Amino acid sequence: MTILDDETLQMYVEESLDHLADIENDLLAIEDAGADVDTELVNKVFRAAHSIKGGAGFLGLQKISELAHKLENVLGMVRSNEIVPNPDIVNVLLQGFDQLRELVGDVDSSNDADVSELVVALTGLTTALVPEERKESVSQEVDIHLGDRGPVFTVSRFELDEARKGGKFLYVFEYDLINDVHRGGRTPLEVLAELDDGGQIVDCTLDLGAVGTLDGEVSTRIPFLVLYTTIIDRDIVSGVYGLPDEQLHRVEAEAIRDAAPRPVAPEPPRQQLATEPVARKPAETPAPKAVSPESTPKSDPPEAPVGGGAKPKKTTTKVEASLRVHVGLLDTLMTLAGELVLSRNQMMQALEGGPQRAMETVAQRIDLITSELQEAIMLTRMQPVGNIFNKFPRVVRDLSRKLDKLVDLELEGTEVELDKTIIEGLNDPLTHLVRNSVDHGIEQPADREAAGKPTRGRVQLRAYHEAGQVIIEIIDDGKGLDPEKLATVAINKGLLTAEQAQAMSVKEKSALIFLAGFSTAEKVTDVSGRGVGMDVVKTNLDQLGGVVELDSEVGVGTSLRIKLPLTLAIIPAQMVSSGGQAFAIPQVNMDELLRIPAAKILERIERVGDAEVVRLRDRLLPLVRLADVLQKVPTFRDPETGELKPDRRRMVADRRAKTSPLFRDGEAPEQDGAGPYDALRTGDERRQSSTSAINVVVATTGAFQYGLVVDELLDAEEIVVKPLGRHLKTCNCYAGATIMGSGRVALILDIPGVARGANLFSLDGSDRAGEVAKEAQTRSAHTEDLLLFRCADDEQFAVHLDLVVRIERIHSSDIERVGARKVLQYQGGSLPLLSVDDVAEVGALTEAAERVVLVMSVPGRTVGLLANGPVDAFQGEITIDKSTLTQPGIAGSTIIDGQTTLLVDVIDIARRQHPDWFEGRNLAADAEEGNATIVFAEDSAFFRDQVTGFLRDAGYEVLDFPDGAQAWAYLQASGAKVDAVVTDIEMPHMDGLELTRNIKGHDDLKRLPVIAVTTLADDEDIARGKAAGVNEYQIKLDRDSLLNSLWKLLGSQTAA
Amino acid sequence: MSTIDRNESTATVHVGENLVASVAERLKPELRSLTDGGVTQVVIDLAGVEMLDSMGIGLLIATHNTLQATGGTLTVVGTSPEIHRLLQTMRLDRHFTVEAA
Hints:
Number of strands of chain A: 42
Oligomer: heterodimer
Helix content of chain B: 40-55%
Order of helices and strands of chain B: EEHEHEHE
Structural class of chain B: alpha/beta
């Protein structure tokens, strides 16, 4: 027979693959259940084999049919408890279904496939396992005699016995298709369906001779005999099948007689009338008894179908061309399409001169429907990740059997859906990773026991959603990766120098396994060795837009985390521009965005070694300028005209230096050289302009992060990914292209590719990161405690926590106004209220029913500072910019968590609002025109700047030091020039008390007056200070008292 | 409607409608005139045929029997999956060639 209809064939293939999809796990469950057979489950597998066989017969796929038939036989015996599905038997079954799947997958050449060995194995299984006395039945044939009519059927005894199991009765039904069927208003098809429902048709035959030829009259008789087994009793069978009693024959044992031996005919003879026995090829190829379960290929690699000596068959992994979609989803699509048509009609109407509003409504509608339509269409591509997860129980089972390990596999989140393309692409890398976990991760049971672990190893496969992405984790509790060993291997292979290795973090060493060329040679271990190294896994995942991270602890286990986009077709991306062109960066590759204001560039961006890095919290990231990698001229947007202009800045850190690490190949332009950018270096300086801010995208490849400097940060958009044309395929920097809302094309950046383009590897980066991390640690001693709050909602302010006494929540209605001043009834008195916007030019305090009042002490009194939430605490190192944003009431600014924060000078606000409070207090200081030199030690940059500021304003020379030790070093060297010392008490390295003792114990220096400034000054502190030799105690930021005190002490000193 | 293509000793009968009693009755004389007229290879095309009743089966068998007597062959083509299964179960495919649609 030929295959005539592609569509029918395609349907058959799909249906069969569907049937086969779950079989593996079902078989494993059958194996687990052992002798305690779950009939329902076995039936399910049996039916699958059965329907595959049926279809194959119809389509003329002999090999598939043959194999399915044999599988069915074995399953039948399992079902009737004749054989116990032990691992060996299940192995053969699994292999059988494996090959079946392969045959179905490549249906066109299935008839040329060689299934003989497996067929023999399966037949052997049935013969070997059937009880001795039944062994022969497989190849033995019997005749069924009907009364004195002689044999009417000839069947294999084995098949007959199989069909009669479970106490079924054997009947011969004698139909006449004319009288019993046609006259009864039924069709033969209905009759067969009825028979199928109630039992099993073993064989049937039509009496062709009785029909006559075309010459005669219309035939009156078409006898049709059916050999049938059913559990239905003789008493009622007539009623059930609507046949007269005399046409129903119960076949008794004596009617079954051994068939006379016949020569084996190669082909079943065709022209055979039913009146004479049908000579038929024996139903089974004589089963070679040699094939016992022990000799079934237990030691073969589990993937290898039992192909015998046949040439290795190329595995054609066909990409499925069709897809099963839920009808409900299709309905939704139809509805949406209908809506769209309606909207189009509306739009046509509106265009024909409707009011503007109508057009807007339509536009909105279309917008909405388009989004929904897009979503629904996307859903059609979504497939549960279980599609691939479900094959792993088999993989793990086979592998652990082979390696003599005990491994449990846990699946979680199989319902999580991913785009079909991604699901398909995940198959290979996941298989490899799971195999690795079992092969290299989980230890032998004995080793596990010795290590105090449960003997059964555990591999978890989990999928879940996180932040719009899908995370897949492969976790094992095996021996983990030894980072040192990995590093050694990498060094031996010349992938890494010993110095580089030394500078690497544990995580980076673990990630070495992903390096190309790392895992090729040792990969020939029997199991995991399939010529696929971990680098290939990583490359595969990269292609899917995935990011893989590895975490491992020696002796505890390894966990791999794969971050995947939900779909490849539409991805969220950040649009950026460089050189006047837009680019898209997939969100999956992006951790955060940094905007470094011009004033911060020098602090945040540093040169370490030969590269530029940006400081990001506790780490340093290597910087890559996108324009350089793409060899474009960077641009900036002119703040006045909004035009794009070429950006002349060459280096982000040290913008006027002569060389930049961002120039490669020694082409760094000399200051007045012929570099391409020097010609541009004309016109106004814009170093101080706000547009000089640097935009950095913190990009991640999974293994490492880097900062990508771009010209502008544009919107975040959902982009539709278009493949690149062939001519751009060699550009490693791009992963694809997209069309933006404006209709322009934007290229999608390939983040690892850009890093390669910049010759940036994580190894180099980590070198530097290590150095600077150390540096950062030593500095972190100088932390500030700030309280963050808001006034207008969009501006962040900070005061030093030390100045805040309490935080109160009040209702706005509690605030009383007395003239221009505001007060609050507080603790039995009235608390004067201040607000930042009273004196500073900042956004007005946002109206709110609830307010926060920061109760603070200023010299001589307590005031309340009105604020809006959220009130937050910040602890960390800050750098204060005292110039850019300083104004009345604002002492300076800093960046906290990426946000500009204004530091509030409460005393200044109080002074400006209530000059009367300070009357008489600052006269002394104003009178002093001292050029006296003061050494000031203070670890808090905030207080240091504040105090230094007002001391300088009062006319003193101030030398400030961040700790006592540095101040002391200076005093020892040049103490003679100093007139007084102001010191904080709590400081690192040398505290204020020790500094004072040193001064007072030094012959030349003990003359110096020492003023201790502190936020806390209880009696005990003062006593300890006095004991150390402190002349005066002052509260920090009480400018007037401090100045008064200085004036007094210096005056007395000069007087003395 | 049924059509018949004849080419010397080969004829193809496109049944084109459900092969039930009435159709079988009508086709029977036509088939007979074919076999009488020297046609030995008869192809019955069941494409588009969804139902085959007992009389239809009778017609197929009668045609087969007639042809067999003269050394000719019957081939049934274009069977739908259901009809194919029917002919297969009845073991008719052992007597004449049955090809799927």
